[in-house]
Design a protein that fits this description.
globular, 5 helices, Arc Repressor Mutant, subunit A, 3 strands, three-stranded antiparallel β-sheet, mainly alpha
Length: 139
């Protein structure tokens, strides 16, 4: 019978990894509750966030959003459709490549995202302040 590999990670590192996962999960639960209390699903909030936060521009394509959400493109198309029906986003044919669709926030989507982002930023600061100083060190 083979012996288990010798631990290459210290107990302190396991403690920090556990703490990090706990804080992440607690933040995720906060985020889910905040989104629902504002009348949208957690996935709809993430869609709005990833559109607004897409690097270098104010829109994102379905494939780009699928990557950010770690979802299948056809699922993202359905999510965009639901958000579009609620007046949170709009689709527009790309100006430079008419085969592409740009997904943009509406003013209603912008307002909702801002409200939720302010709550999330405050919670992030609270949840992760000073946390996990040694997690990325080799031990």
């Amino acid at each position: 019978m083979a012996r288990p590999p010798r631990a290459a990670i210290s107990k302190a590192t396991f403690d920090e990894m556990s703490e990090f996962r706990y804080r992440m999960r607690r933040f995720q639960r906060f985020s889910e509750h905040a989104a629902r209390s504002h009348g949208i699903t957690p996935l709809q909030y993430l869609l709005l966030l990833h559109i607004k936060g897409y690097p270098g521009r104010e829109y994102a394509g379905v494939g780009e959003l699928a990557e950010r959400l770690q979802a299948h493109p056809h699922g993202v198309v359905a999510l965009v459709s639901r958000c579009e029906r609620r007046g949170l986003v709009r689709r527009r044919t790309g100006k430079t490549d008419r085969r592409k669709v740009e997904v943009r926030l509406t003013s209603k989507g912008e307002r909702l995202l801002l409200q939720l982002a302010l709550l999330h930023r405050a919670e992030l600061k609270s949840s992760f302040r000073g946390a996990l100083p040694g997690l990325l060190k080799d031990s």
